């Protein structure tokens, strides 16, 4: 017999179906509750609300488990490539050799952006934040590909938008970096691999050939893979909810980029390095900043610590911490903020406030130190998060469309004024 839950409201009892996921996750299905009883549920921040059934990412925050399409993040970070993982999350299976070659070739054909888009770069003030530029430029792609606006596009037509966006994002991101430096842009090379091509456009010079240390290429793959998807987080939920109105892929992802920008979400990677720098400038006293983070009258939070879902080590943080040590050693970089980060982590993990609240380092705690060692400035960090998250956003948008999910439209409990009569201005 299938499991049900019952709820008694105002003396009447209602049976609610229980949904069980493939990893035995349980959910009470309340989708008919309002029709039957007139009641809704209230869950600010959606801390306890499943918005969808998804087959993309499994996350167990208590155990610190993260899997894309069933594959453990540790294995993918160690053995796979970013493009292969992108294929996996978007299409559901690891690609055959042939499928991967075709995927790469299809992407390589679309890496150029329309020359007119260069005018956008010219229009941004030189100090504009890269995330603002990125969301604007990704949204603007819809103007150049109006066929993407068709809400009834076929799966094949949607796939063209998917390939187009995957192909153009590295070009856009690297041109944002070039703009910030006042350097001429480097055009994509269509015979290169995705990550190498990106590095070449970011760090290459129009005046010569560039080669990259395999350590750098490997680090870039790892970082991007670790960021690919994280189920229904703030930016991904944004992509799904915007897409649920039948908005096109570019508009949906552009909205996701804006959601990611905030320092409580992807913007934390920039905030972490700025916090570590501030601690260093202030004498490097980790305890002083721990005390600030615990003081309820101080708005300061320990950036890169805590997570809505993980109540254990973020498995991505474990991999990144190790990668950080390896990369700094291999590149011979001695970054003094790494010592501060380690001291802060150790102090926090032994502090009752952090222990009680199960606050552990998250993915953003060490990633900025690696990005910096690779040569990125801190304002680019969240853009790199977005580049890594792109396949996840695409996969979630595609799944939402395939499931024909209804438009996202939460309800509310109204707590404002009850009906009152308008008072003319002269009487107020
Ligand atoms: N420093 C100090 N206290 C914290 C922190 C922190 N970083 N994070 C949570 N707390 C405290 C919070 O004050 C609250 O204490 P109390 O119960 O006494 O009121 C308790 O822990 C629970 O916090 P919450 O804000 O209710 O938890 P949440 O699930 O709503 O927020 C979070 C999760 C990630 C927004 C939060 O932990 C945070 O602000 N962290 C710092 C920003 C950060 O690193 N964000 C990146 C998240 S991982 C990557 C991503 O998702 O993009």
From TrEMBL:
GO terms for cellular component: cytoplasm. Transmembrane segments: none annotated. InterPro entries: Citrate_synth-like_lrg_a-sub, Citrate_synth-like_sm_a-sub, Citrate_synthase, Citrate_synthase_AS, Citrate_synthase_bac-typ, Citrate_synthase_sf, Citrate_synthase_typ-I. The keyword Secreted does not apply. GO terms for molecular function: citrate synthase activity. Pathway: Carbohydrate metabolism; tricarboxylic acid cycle; isocitrate from oxaloacetate: step 1/2. It catalyses: oxaloacetate + acetyl-CoA + H2O = citrate + CoA + H(+). The active site is at residues 307, 364. Belongs to the citrate synthase family. PANTHER family: CITRATE SYNTHASE. This is Citrate synthase. It comes from Rhinopithecimicrobium faecis.
């Amino acid at each position: 017999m299938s499991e049900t839950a019952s709820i008694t409201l105002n003396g009447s009892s209602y049976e609610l179906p229980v949904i069980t996921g493939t990893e035995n996750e349980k959910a009470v299905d309340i989708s008919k509750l309002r029709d039957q009883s007139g009641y809704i549920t209230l869950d600010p921040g959606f801390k306890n609300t499943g918005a969808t059934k998804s087959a993309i990412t499994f996350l167990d925050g208590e155990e610190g488990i993260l899997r894309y399409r069933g594959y453990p993040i540790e294995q993918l970070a160690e053995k796979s490539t970013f493009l292969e993982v992108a294929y996996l999350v978007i299409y559901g299976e690891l690609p055959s050799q042939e499928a991967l070659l075709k995927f790469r070739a299809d992407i390589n054909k679309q890496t150029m952006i329309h020359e007119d888009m260069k005018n956008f770069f010219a229009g941004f003030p030189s100090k504009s934040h890269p995330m603002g530029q990125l969301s604007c430029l990704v949204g603007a792609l819809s103007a150049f590909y109006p066929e993407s606006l068709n809400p009834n596009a076929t799966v094949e037509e949607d796939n063209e938008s998917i390939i187009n966006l995957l192909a153009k994002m590295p070009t856009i991101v690297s041109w944002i970096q070039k703009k910030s430096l006042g350097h001429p842009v480097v055009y994509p090379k269509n015979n290169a691999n995705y990550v190498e091509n990106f590095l070449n456009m970011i760090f290459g010079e129009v005046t010569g050939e560039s080669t990259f240390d395999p350590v750098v290429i490997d680090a870039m793959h790892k970082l991007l893979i670790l960021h690919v998807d994280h189920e229904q987080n703030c930016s991904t939920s944004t992509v799904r909810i915007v897409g649920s109105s039948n908005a096109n892929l570019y508009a949906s992802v552009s909205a996701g980029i804006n959601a990611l920008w905030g320092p409580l979400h992807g913007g934390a990677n920039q905030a972490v390095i700025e916090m570590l720098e501030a601690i260093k400038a202030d004498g490097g006293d980790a305890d002083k900043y721990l005390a600030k983070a615990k003081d309820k009258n101080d708005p300061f939070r320990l950036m890169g610590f805590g997570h809505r879902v993980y109540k254990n080590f973020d498995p991505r943080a474990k991999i990144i911490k190790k990668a950080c040590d390896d990369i700094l050693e291999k590149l011979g970089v001695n970054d003094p903020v790494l010592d501060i980060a380690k001291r802060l982590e150790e102090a926090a993990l032994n502090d009752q406030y952090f222990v009680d609240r199960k606050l552990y380092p998250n993915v953003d705690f060490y990633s900025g130190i690696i990005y910096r060692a690779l040569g990125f400035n801190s304002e680019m960090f969240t853009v790199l998060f977005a580049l890594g998250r792109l396949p996840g956003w695409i996969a979630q948008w595609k799944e939402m469309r395939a499931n024909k999910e209804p438009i996202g439209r939460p309800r509310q409990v109204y707590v404002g004024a009850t009906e009152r009569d308008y008072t003319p201005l002269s009487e107020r």
